[in-house]
Specification:
The complex is a heterodimer of chains A (210) and B (141). In chain A, α6 runs antiparallel to α7. In chain A, 78% of the residues lie in helices and 0% in strands. With 210 residues, chain A is an all-alpha fold. The longest helix of chain A has 36 residues. In chain B, α1 runs antiparallel to α2. Classes of the chains: A mainly alpha (210), B mainly alpha (141). At the A-B interface, α2, α3, α4 and α7 of A face α1, α2, α3 and α5 of B.
């Protein structure tokens, strides 16, 4: 177990307060992320209410296999990130590093599958623009939201992967101790990105198949 | 966290692995039921399952269950705003047909979801043309 003085940072009077402060600060940030994605979810909800048939037609064109695989990858990455957090709390350096690397790897796998899916979507003419393949016109609304929401989500995921990678580097270089409170911050962010995808999956891939 | 009972590695994987099993099972259910003919009820089922999955991630993986009241309150802040934003926005859109005016006629079952280009565009143009007056009608303006 590491000495508390190695974990404690300014301005915190105790490690317990620091942990609480990290969780509090990250949750405030996650609340802003809820607002950020919430605007796009609201747009989706309004347009789906206004154009239900077009949204059914459009979402039928999404590849549910890619979507399901990606959801499974992210759910598994949340598991490995949780184990990483508990490894951190228990001071288990090797388990922590292993789980951070697994989490990052699963995130990269998600991005790879997403890239494959984007390539197929482009081939099918699903990018709103002059060569858009679907009718009626409101299907463009669905796909506009699809590209932006999944794209922004992918950017968030990439940031999470970078954070996990950076923390791994710091741990390997012994610049931080395993009990560092930064692990909890990274873990909360990662789970949040996963939970955004869980809702995205239900909105984008599931409608229009029945 | 309890100092006396330090969970083993296997114990951690079992405890959180069982949450993962439930999450993946829910994923399987939501995938399979997407092919059922549920009509208007399907978003309720699928968003409901998604909601349960998010709840599991937030309560167990993000450990809201084991967190202080402060953290729990903080986590609800964004959701509270979403509740305001959604209810006010839909309060607008869903009541546009209140007096059967031209804007309202493009919403819901009254308009009929024809799937034809003209109707889609006329609905959008009616929504955009708010305030122009009763001259804005279906079939293009």
């Amino acid at each position: 177990m590491s000495d508390p003085s190695e974990i404690l940072r300014e301005p915190w009077p105790s490690v317990a307060r620091q942990r609480e402060g990290v969780a509090f600060g990250v949750w405030i940030f996650l609340s802003t992320e809820v607002l950020f994605f919430g605007g796009m979810f609201l747009s989706y909800a309004v347009y789906r209410t206004l154009f239900p048939e077009a949204f059914r037609i459009a979402s039928h064109e999404t590849d549910i296999l890619y979507g399901t695989i990606n959801t499974a990858l992210l759910l598994t990455s949340s598991l490995t990130m949780t184990i990483a957090l508990h490894a951190s709390l228990l001071g288990r350096r090797r388990l922590l590093v292993l789980c951070l690397l697994l989490t990052a790897a699963l995130g990269l796998a998600f991005l790879a599958v997403k890239g494959l899916e984007y390539a197929e979507d482009l081939k099918k003419g699903l990018l709103p623009g002059p060569n858009f393949a679907l009718e009626p016109a409101a299907t463009r609304l669905f796909f506009g939201l699809y590209w932006v929401m999944t794209g922004i989500h992918a950017v968030h995921l990439a940031i999470g992967i970078a954070i996990a990678g950076f923390l791994t580097l710091l741990l390997l270089r012994r610049s931080i101790v395993p009990e560092s409170t930064a692990i909890e911050g990274a873990s909360l962010y990662w789970h949040f990105v996963d939970s955004i995808w869980i809702v995205l999956f239900a909105l984008i891939y599931l409608p229009g198949r029945g | 966290m309890s100092e006396e009972r330090r969970p083993s590695t296997i114990g951690l994987w079992l405890r959180y692995g069982s949450v993962w099993v439930v999450l993946v099972a829910l994923l399987g259910i939501t995938f399979a039921t997407s092919y059922l003919h549920l009509g208007d009820k399907s978003p309720i089922l699928h968003l409901g399952i998604a909601g349960i999955q998010v709840l599991l991630v937030w309560l167990l993986f993000m450990n809201l269950l084991g967190s202080s009241k402060l953290i729990r309150l903080c986590s609800m802040a964004g959701l509270l705003f979403l509740a305001f934003m959604f209810s006010l926005t839909f309060g607008d859109y869903l009541t546009r047909a209140w007096h059967g005016g031209p804007i309202g006629s493009c919403l819901g079952k009254a308009s009929g979801e024809h799937g034809r280009d003209e109707n889609a565009m006329s609905c959008a143009s009616q929504v955009q043309g708010r305030g122009i007056g009763p001259e804005v009608r279906g079939g293009g303006s």
